[in-house]
Amino acid sequence: MNSNQVSTIQANILVVDDTPDNVRLLSTILTQQGYQVRKALNGQRAISTAQELPPNLILLDVMMPEMNGYEVCAQLKASPITSSIPVIFLSALDDVSDKVKAFEVGAVDYITKPFQDREVLARVANQLTIQHQQKLLQQQTEKLEELVRRLQNEIQEREGVELALRIAQEKSDRLLLNILPAAIVENLKKGENTEAERFESATVLFADIVGFTSIAARMSPQELVSLLNQIFSKFDELTEKNGLEKIKTSGDAYMVAGGLPVPKADRAEAIANMALDMQAAIADFKTDTGEQFQIRIGIHMGPVVAGVIGTKKFIYDLWGDTVNVASRMESQGLPGYIQVTAAIYEELKDRYVFEERGAIEIKGKGEEIVYLLTGKKADR
Q1: Which among 64, 244, 312, 325 is least buried, having the fewest CB atoms inside 10 angstroms?
Q2: How far apart are CA 69 and CA 82, in angstroms?
Q3: CATH classification code of 3-136
């Protein structure tokens, strides 16, 4: 026998045969090839030996007293400790039915006695190679599964970070949109210029709560802020409804504009609707003494400069004579009325109802005819 013709994998082999000579012969053949060999002369001893220290392979005789090889193999395959150990039968039985039965109970190979040394070694080496390859494949599979788990964890962590970043970005965007117009926010996000720009025609509304100073003197700061928050939150809803841009609040004053930063063809009509809506809305609020609130509203239209200036605490604001005149319309108006300039009257007189108030002195402008907006015309 040329031992170099058979590749040897380090292994522990259990030889089971009730004939001592067969056990010695097989043990010698396997030991010379470099395998470690343990022996069992009956089925019961084979099972207990395999249970105590599972071998890499079992060579099992079929014809044994008390418990034959088929019964031994069946019990080995029924135990989770020994079920994966490959079993090769050695038997003088050469009938096809005997071989079929061996494979049915779990054998991986069948060698007929008398056997050749090289055949035994080749079949043993073949099964050990298969077992070795299976273990390598299992190890690679486990490594791959571990890699997949790590990748899945990394993906989940990354998705969690991306979700957190997206939520933070959305919060940041909502915060910016609560401070600045959407168009200005987009410019800021793109790093584009946000300097003030001129708008040839914008409509500006100022509103102020009548007698608020005396009301404030009778209320705690917390009650005062809560009340203003309720009123201005309602005005904010109306601003959204009419497609306008809230500019700012100052104390009890509320400022809104139409036609900027995105031009709006119906800016004057939208502001007029806003003013009428504000009058209706304020009627739902009462003072601490049970009286209904009243507001003064002033409106004017014309060119303005609008934008964000400075580098901290951004605010979108308007400047120009149009803003000043709109403010005068409010401050010199009548409680519970909407006072507008002649420019507004000329723009909306065909669609809205006005009353001429007459000429009033406007600081820095002299006397000008002003009007009171009282509603929409019936066909509107």
Answers
A1: 312
A2: 15
A3: 3.40.50.2300
